[in-house]
Design brief:
Order of helices and strands: EHEHEHEHEHHEHHEEH
CATH topology: Rossmann fold
Bound molecules: nicotinamide-adenine-dinucleotide
Low-confidence stretches: 256-260
Distance between the termini: 35 Å
CATH class: Alpha Beta
Helix content: 40-55%
Largest sheet: 8 strands, mixed
Length: 260
């Protein structure tokens, strides 16, 4: 998809990766980006972006994406304010350690259930019947493949996002709806998230060969997933070791797995 002239809704837009994704879209001449976040820090992030890009192109919508009705309100807002939605990035997320039971349950709800809400709403608002087609990027993590020790629910939520994305991104469905769905799986990235789960930063420091990436580097992968029309149900891994890699959702692989 050509980003120029398109409208994007990014959840977790007040955070490290969300802000970098918004900046990447604005640099590529998106018509507008709306940051959707539960934190009022989103206002400051939007103000900061407005200093660098045309102010009318950036907005903030305060919302808890774990609440379907409130999340739908964000879609209605963006549609009304900017006339359409073309790009949805389900990026809001959190990490909690296994010791924190309520935090772990919240992690499952935010990282997986809310991504389901955002994927469903993205399909409803952008499909060929109600919209003009579009792209949904679900932010998972390398933890979907290489589990983080002591973070069962984080790992499970991210593996769930990969599976959800592959099902929503079946290319035959894209042909009907005009909506592509892809997953982005970064490895450790320098954002506030690394300091929210107790002991996470210390654990990373002890891992050999695990440099922490910049959000801007991950945003390069994000932009490719948005722009590359060939990618549907694809999983992108972004790591300092191997760079940006894409695992396509190939028809022949799906046929063989359906025979299992
Ligand atoms: N930082 C990393 O190392 C890393 C690696 C892989 C994947 N990720 C994923 O990237 C995504 C973005 O995380 P980040 O690293 O930028 O962290 P972050 O903590 O900077 O950003 C997360 C954002 O989500 C928002 N949020 C939390 N609960 C919300 C809710 N209920 N409704 C709306 N917004 C809510 C927060 O306010 C915050 O702005 C997450 O899904 C995370 O799991 C991060």
């Amino acid at each position: 998809m050509k980003i120029s002239g398109k409208v994007a809704l990014i959840t977790g837009g007040a955070g490290g990766l969300g802000k970098a994704f918004a900046a990447a879209l604005l640099r590529a001449k998106a018509k507008a980006v709306c940051l959707v976040d539960i934190s009022s820090r989103g206002k400051e992030v939007a103000e900061d972006l407005r200093l660098q890009y045309p102010p009318s192109q950036v907005d903030f919508y305060h919302c808890d994406v774990m609440n379907y009705d409130l999340f739908k309100g964000a879609f209605d807002f963006v549609q009304k304010r900017f006339g359409a939605i073309d790009i949805v990035c389900n990026n809001a997320g959190m990490a909690a350690s296994d010791h924190n039971v309520s935090g772990s349950i919240r992690t499952l709800r935010l990282n997986l259930e809310a991504v389901y809400f955002g994927t469903k709403l993205g399909m409803d608002y952008m499909d060929k019947e109600s919209g003009r087609g579009g792209v949904i990027i679900n932010v998972a993590s390398m933890a979907a493949f290489l589990p983080l020790m002591g973070s069962m629910c984080y790992n499970a939520s991210k593996a769930g996002v990969v599976a959800l994305t592959k099902s929503a991104g079946v290319p035959e469905q894209y042909e009907m709806t005009g909506v592509r769905v892809n997953a982005l799986c970064p490895s450790f990235t320098e954002t506030p998230l690394l300091d929210t789960s107790s002991g996470l930063r210390e654990m990373i420091a002890q891992l050999p060969n695990h440099p922490i990436m910049s959000p801007e580097y991950v945003a390069e992968g994000f932009q490719q997933l948005v722009e590359n029309e060939e990618l549907c149900g694809a999983v992108m891994r972004v790591t300092p070791q191997k760079g940006i890699e894409i695992v396509p959702n190939r028809r022949k692989d799906r046929n063989s797995s359906s025979k299992l």
